[in-house]
Amino acid sequence: MTKTMSLPQAVLHALETLHNSGYEAYVVGGCVRDHLMGKIPHDYDICTSAMPCETIEVFSGYRTIETGLKHGTVTVLIGDTSLEITTFRTEGEYSDSRHPDTVDFVRSFREDAARRDFTMNSIGYSPHIGIADHYNGVQDIQNKLIRAVGDPETRFKEDALRILRALRFSAVTGFAIEQNTMLAIHKHSADIHNVSSERVFSELTKLICGDYAASVIDEYFDVITQVLPELAPMKDFQQHNPHHIYDVLHHTLKSLEAAPKDSILRWTILFHDVGKPSCFSMDENGIGHFYRHAHVSYEIAGNILRRLRASNNLIDRVSTLIRHHDTPIEINRTTIKKRMASLGEYVFFDLLQVMRADCRGLAPEYHYRLKEYDDIEYIAKEILAEAPCLTIRDLKISGNDLKQNGISPGPLMGRILNILLNEVLDEKTTNEREALIKRALEIEKTL
Ligand code: ATP
Ligand code: MG
Prior knowledge:
447 residues, alpha+beta, Beta Polymerase, domain 2, Hydrophobic Seed Protein, 4 domains, two-stranded antiparallel ribbon, 22 helices, 13 strands, binds adenosine-5'-triphosphate, binds magnesium ion
């Protein structure tokens, strides 16, 4: 763990400029934490003893933006870097669960660090002072512990989003949550209902994309089901099916762990079997079935994601993948081409990833299917390399060509083009202009 932190030029310049004007200034929060953990920070937040108006004055030679002024934040543009510089502050209540009702500016970094959520996020760094660590954050990072700054119950009552943030940091870093912080999380989990959907969705997305998401969801299932109550029936729901050795929840968590760390794929996997409990039936041989569960899961997932105010694009993509996750793909060139044509190539490849992750949650004797997904992917890539015809737009014939041959635009032309596309996908007609025109005229006669 190095005591000096190398900072981007613009950040260093901002800290120096404040220092030279007689103010204290630190980089703080995520960037110091990431540095101490050996990760490359993705952005740098600066805090200072300068009041907002003083910051503006210090940076009078630069473009400054006053958007967050009420909360003490001034954005300064140095070269093409935009930096958020926030005055040391303490916070009042969070009655809208988004912004504190009041902020009081203070002159000491110690007081500013006290309002931060976890010890590992309360560490500052200044090139002049070095590490400023008032709440033993460095030690907690060394011990891989997430610990609330101050009394955990008070801190979670102030802002219940911190509960999900604790889970998120644990899911991303694999750090354990310190005992008292953990007890307060369980005790106050219902307060998450006061937090806005957007904040919940954003933290949950980061949580489920963590390397350790599965074990955090398992251990804090009481907290997760506060925001995702639809998951509750999955726990302990036995599948009575030879494909499965886990209940629905633990199958889902095994699959989640195996899925790439991509928000679309992870949300899809989290919800892909959420409809199973309500679709269960047992046949005369004692085997469990879940007919129509892909459709029911798709409906439940849509409801959850709309409630959490996810973007329409995410809802569409996740819904499509859930709806198709259980429809087998034959290892056959034409079938693969048709599936790619109907889903679009990007969805098709995402679906293969979903199927692979789903497969890893099955009983080991069914893992041979992973090899089949590799074969399907190989064939799909081979097809794509041939610049295939997958949509009507890819047909080497246009509406104009048909018009010149006496087929006027309208529903009939649309039907002919669709039939041509299907024949090309089935490799019954070649995608060449002359052949397509000839075939179009033949089809016209039969319609
Ligand atoms: P990330 O890597 O996701 O950016 P981060 O720790 O930087 O992690 P931000 O949401 O960018 O998280 O917040 C910056 C800093 O502000 C945090 O490190 C923490 O000190 C403080 N902070 C953020 N949200 C809260 C909160 N809800 N309560 C208290 N402090 C918070
Ligand atoms: Mg940050």
